[in-house]
Structure formats: C-alpha cells, structure tokens
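User: quick one, fold this
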Amino acid sequence: MKKTNKILAICAGLCLFTFTSCFNNVFYEILQDVSPEDATVSGPINSITRFKAGDSELLVLAGNHPSDANQRGLRYKSTAEEYNDHGYWNTFPASSLPFDLHAYDYYGVQDHTGQQIIKVVADENNLYLVTAEYENNSDTGTSCPSKIHLWTAQFTYSNEELVLSGSGDSDADKWTDICADTNYLPIYIYDSYCYSAFSVFCTNSTNPEHRYAYIRYGSSSAYAEDYQDVKIYKLNGSSEPSEVSASAYELSVDSSLTSNICSAVYYPDASSNSEGVVFFNTIASITNETSSKAPTRMYFAYEEDVMYSDAEKSSTCVATGADIGETVISMALNSDCIILGRGDLTATSSSSSNGGVEKLILNDGVPSSTLGDFSDSNAQSQLLSTYFVTNLLSVDPEKAELDNTMYATLNFIGTGSSSSVSYNSIGLWAYYTERHNWNRE
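Assistant:
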C-alpha cells in the first residue's frame, strides 16, 4: 500500500510539473474574464470627441444600432466624476436633428432615406456632424454614398441634456450645412469602387481653448485628378471655412504623405501657425496637455513606430523602438503609460493578430523601448487582437492608468463569419476605476 501511495505521489508531482508551464496562460485568461455588461453604445464609431457645452465638459460620438433607437444618432455623456460608471450615455433627440436618420426602405421604393452620422468633431464653441446620404448605384450594383454633409450648431447643457442654442424658428433651423453650396467633402467612383477625398478632424484638446477643427479637401493619392490638389480649411462654426497654410510634421523617413493630413494637436513648441497647431499625416496623435497644464511633449504613431518629443518642449521627435507589431491607429495618454490601439486599415479581413491593444510605460514622459504588460487589468482579454481599436481616450491624462476612466471603440473588417469576432462587440468599451475592468459600454 505504501508503495502504491508513493507511486501516486510521484505521478501527482509529475502532473503538477507538466501543467505548471501552461497554468499562467490558461488560468490567467480565465481569471481575467468578467460578466459582460449590457451594450448601451453600439455600432461603428469613428471618433470620441471632447466638447464643452455651457460650463459642462462632455464626450460626444455617433452610435448606429440597427434596431435600438436609443443607441442611434448623436450620443453624449458628462465627464464629471459622478458619471464615471457604466451607462449614463444620453441620446440627442432625432427630432432635433436637421435630417432623418438613415434607413433603408425594403418594402416600398427599396432605396435609402435620411443621413448617417459618420463622425463628430468639435472646436471651442461648435459641434460638427459629418453625415452621409446613400443611394443604390446601378452601375456598380452596390449601395454607396451620394453626398457628404457637414452640419454645425451650438449648444448649452441643462438638466443633464444637450440643448440647441442660437436663432431659428425650429430646431432644424439652428443647424447650418457647411457643404450646402460648396463641396468641401468630395467622394467619387473609380473602377467600380467608391472613394473619399477628404478628412475631417480636430485637435480634441483637454483644454477647450485649444480645440480647433479642420477639413482636408482632396488627397495626393486620389485616383481622380480633380481631387489631387489638396487644401486645408479651418472650420469657423456656421461661417465659411477659411483656407489655412498647413503641412504635416516632417519625418526624415518619409515625407511623401504630407498632402494627406488627417490629424492635429495643439503643441505651440513645434508649430509655425498662430493657433499653435501641429498637423500629421497619421491618424493617431496626442500630447500630454491637461485641462490646466500646457503640453510639454507630443506623441504620434507612424505605421508601427511611436514617435515622441525627445525632450520637454522640443519640436524634434524620435522613435521609441518598441516592437508594436502592427500599425497604431489610436492612442490614449495616462500619467504612467500610453495605451496603443492597433489595426491594419489596408486589410480586407480581420485576422487574429492585426488589432488589439499594447502599452508603453512612461518614465517622466519618455516611453519605454519595450512593451509593457496588462497584468493589472483585463485590457487584452477584452479588447482582442481580432478587432481594430479605432479610438482610445483617457478622460484625465493626469491620472494613472488604473485610476483613470478610459474609453475604446472596436470594429472589424469582413463579414464576421469567423468565430473570433462578433457584431455584438462593435461599439464602445470602457474602463472605470471602481469597476477595475474593461467591459462593454
């Protein structure tokens, strides 16, 4: 009997030795799993924008749930501390928009009606909605945009509701379509595909006084020659946009895309214009500005490289050298790290590794040359690498990662037939300090 017990003990020891090597990976993922919250902000989201209405700081975006009217259209939420929890997103009344929300009439004329909000940007005083009308294109046999609009209005915030201000007999009259008489946002058909030749973006500064919004008209890579002549316009509320002289921050490794500006930050130490704005030909760019402190460093992503100011208030940027493994398309700054959102926007379908999040630890504002881990949060087990992380935002960049409120948006390319992605995951995700995990928003 003693011999049998000894054999069993030896076998148990061997089993423990065998499975210890996979314990960390397998059980860590199990322990990181959390019960899913109800989805309250769904659909492809192309921006999370800071906006000040009256005395209140808000986050605004566009949702597009196919069946839940409360998740469609213009959504907003206060950044005040008491709202840093799941939910609390309001829906701006569809009846107060200057257009009907997009729908498809399957049983009548079998065509598109209304407009879809595809992006929201803001400056110090104005909110802007980029919207698209669609049509059935008989030449290509597809549905594609027929007209892009850019609406603007001013707002106040009262009793937790966003309210239109300005003159007009009706709510619709308080909006202005900047593209009503001038086509600032061109689209075109080439070789049976629909292309855009514009970009609308803003500095999204934490300080409202440093918020500016812009249009890039045209693209140096446009197939249509009519749109290869690029111009940059600053948005001025309901007034006509003003053309500005702008060039992208120049990199010694590549200056061929200076005509495809698509993001900007407020960083006077590297700017030559009166507003103190620096332009980039990449979509991921941030600074360490806070609501009360001027920026002393800027950070941006060039393909798989993260660049940063080599010293405080420096205009020279250098690469971290970290092996991020995929193109960085979004960034969020915390006092102790930068969260990076990945995604290959040139891909034709999602894969198991071209999305997700990574992290760079900060030491006095300088990013590390190696990737950090998420051992204290479930970020990588929720914001999976099968999804593109199209937006990231830290509400208060002065706070450390685990003490902050952060938002991320997920999307994927393809039909969703793979078991590794789900349409239910498309939309907004959030991290709250008290909840201490990333979960559906």
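User: anything notable?
Assistant: Residues 1-31 have pLDDT under 50 and may be disordered.
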